[in-house]
Amino acid sequence: MAALFDGRVEQAIRIIWFDRQADRREEALALLRAAANTGDGDAFYFLGRCYLGKSYVDPVVELPADKDFAYECFHSSLGLESAVGMFGTMHQEGYVPPGGTFVHPPYHSKKELWDAVSEKAGQGQVFCKYMIANAYYYGTVADFWDITPDEVGSRRFERLQYEWTAAALKLYEECAASGLGIAIPNLVDILRTGRNGAPIQSQKAKNYIHLGASMGIGACERMVGNAYRDENQLEKAVEMYERAVAHKDDYAYYCLGRLYTYNGALPLDLKKAMSYLEKGYSLCPDDTGFCNLLGEIYFRGGTDIKPDYEQAFLLLSKAFFKGSTWGSDMLGTCYLNGLGTTPNLNMARKLFALNPKKPLAASGLRRLEHLT
After folding, report:
1. For labelling alongside 152, which of 4, 145, 193, 372 has CA 20 to 30 A away?
2. What pTM does this model have?
3. What does the alpha-carbon distance between residue 294 and residue 273 come to, in Å, rounded to a whole number?
4. Residue 62 in 3-state DSSP?
5. Count of domains for the chain
6. Banded pLDDT at 2 (limits 50, 70, 90)
């Protein structure tokens, strides 16, 4: 990684984003604070970024989320003329820059910010490559260049999106080769999905997933676990999911719980399933997957688990109103029979109609015919 920031900033970036060393977290933060205290705007940006949550720092580093503090750091970064700070905060949801503008002297346009960060990337600063790659990947490059579909025409804009995705792919690969693991998930997404017309490269995606797993990236370990599960190598799948959990991948709890619940790949063990799913739900209370699987266990019950219709209704309703119809047959049954809620035949009918071939829904619809 070329040293294009203050040496203390470079070292902190290495510890937090490359090596992802929780035991050196305080050392890295102290380096950033020391550089920030000398008026280094870049240090303020990276210090603030540390507190934005697991989408910005691998959760294995165990940094607390504190948006208010992060935004204070960003204010200082912009005031101290950091191009990286201005670039990095420009599309930060919820952040309002000083004076209502992200562009501060000595820069006078978003394109100048793009050029400044691109220059650092071109000189080998890997994190700047990652920031530019993200702009290509998410399409925010259009804002830096003041490009809209209306200005260039829809077909030309589609072609630009393809070119931007290709540019993102190249930069993400360079980042991954330099050891920046956070570049791998978006890289894999491009290779697996053919984003914006890019060629699908399944084997290459698999190679990068395994690279990420070897680096201890929880999301990649989970994906390797999914591949083992699909190949019926269940012992290896469990091992990878447990590794992913150890590396703070919350959704690995879902994958583990799913193995032991109804129609799971391993023998039914509802207590073990609930243990995993409840841990995951406590971390991701708005995730429909956890809501649905836990709701099903509370609805159906089984060995040593009694049904709890109030909990079932609460969880299945939560998933449904967040857009998931997976548990609509069970939720409809709750409304039909007044399980955990007041009976509501109209609501039951609407829910059964969403998946009418499911046994519960089919029997519920037949019963409603006799009741009306």
Report:
1. 193
2. 0.90
3. 9
4. coil
5. 1
6. very low
